[in-house]
Q: What sequence folds into this?
């Protein structure tokens, strides 16, 4: 098995590296990596439904979609991420225990009572410190997970919009009460944990990315992982509705969006305006559900004529 430590903390590069190394050859690999502040969106998720865009932008949190399914997770330099890439014998997909057991073994040897719970979470004292996901490509399987050592839980709670029904179904009152950091149970550092995990990986040798690898990963990063089309536009078709009381009255907006493009949009409510709001609706059909794109359209309109007393910022903030 090849042991690879990615040196960059760019989530765009690191996720591109995962895909490149998965598809490069049939060799088994263990990759260790860390990301700067990031929300990592599951492949099949609606990005805007999972995150608080305003908070994420204010806190300079990167937003990146990954190849695998599952839920959104928050990364920062208090996390260590690990990726196993192996040949798929047909029995390993959704066999999370096989790939999480090395992590559990290291922690238990350190006196930490870690365990796999449910489908894909690792817990200490019934609190989550690791989420895991998988992806299959031809005859290869990728399993990756994140390990919380001293992650900033306060930022996590601000930038992730966990659906209320999901929280209630787990019988708890907040995200913060569900998660914990490994450092609360042991003084082991991330570099020390890396060493212990690598020492417990049999038949392994280190591999360092060469210039050709870096060039190909960078190309994939630029064409896919660093694009709005992948990170936002790839979201499944969805409807977006919002309602606010503005100076003009109550305004409700509902939109249908596919591939990140506004297909239909309707403003309704008891607001006043001297012009027909359908003019605004027509201008927004076909526009990407992206802040900058919609802002550019609205700047060309005298919105006070349609929503008396409301500002461009009032209407823009309703759309996100």
A:
């Amino acid at each position: 098995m090849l042991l690879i430590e990615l040196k960059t903390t760019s989530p765009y590069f690191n996720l591109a590296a995962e895909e490149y190394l998965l598809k490069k050859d049939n060799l088994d690999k263990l990759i260790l990596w860390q990301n700067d502040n990031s929300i990592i969106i599951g492949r099949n998720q609606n990005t805007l439904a999972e995150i608080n865009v305003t908070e994420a932008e204010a806190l300079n949190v990167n937003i990146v979609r990954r190849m695998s399914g599952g839920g959104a997770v928050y990364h920062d330099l208090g996390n260590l991420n690990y990726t196993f890439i192996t040949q798929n014998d047909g029995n390993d997909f959704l066999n999370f225990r096989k790939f999480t057991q090395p992590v559990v073994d290291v922690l238990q040897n350190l006196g930490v009572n870690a365990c796999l719970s449910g489908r894909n979470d690792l817990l200490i004292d019934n609190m989550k410190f690791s989420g895991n996901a998988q992806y299959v490509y031809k005859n290869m399987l990728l399993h990756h997970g994140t390990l919380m050592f001293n992650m900033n839980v306060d930022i996590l709670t601000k930038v992730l919009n966990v659906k209320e029904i999901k929280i209630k179904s787990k019988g708890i009152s907040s995200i913060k009460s569900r998660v914990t950091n490994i450092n609360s149970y042991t003084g082991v550092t991330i570099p020390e944990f890396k060493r212990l995990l690598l020492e417990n990986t049999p038949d392994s040798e280190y591999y360092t990315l060469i210039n050709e690898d870096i060039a190909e990963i960078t190309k994939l990063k630029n064409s896919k992982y660093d694009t709005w089309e992948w990170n936002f536009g790839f979201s499944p078709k969805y409807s977006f509705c919002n309602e606010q009381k503005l100076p003009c009255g109550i305004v409700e907006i509902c939109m249908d969006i596919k591939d990140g493009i506004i297909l239909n949009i309707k403003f309704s409510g008891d607001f006043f305006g001297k012009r027909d709001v359908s003019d605004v609706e027509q201008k927004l059909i076909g526009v990407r559900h992206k802040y900058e794109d919609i802002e550019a359209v609205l700047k060309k309109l005298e919105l006070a004529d349609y929503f008396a007393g409301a500002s461009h910022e009032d209407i823009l903030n309703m759309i996100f």
Remarks:
- The CA atoms of residues 245 and 251 lie 6 Å apart.
- The first strand starts at residue 2 and ends at 5.
- The longest helix spans residues 211-225.
- The chain has a mean pLDDT of 92.
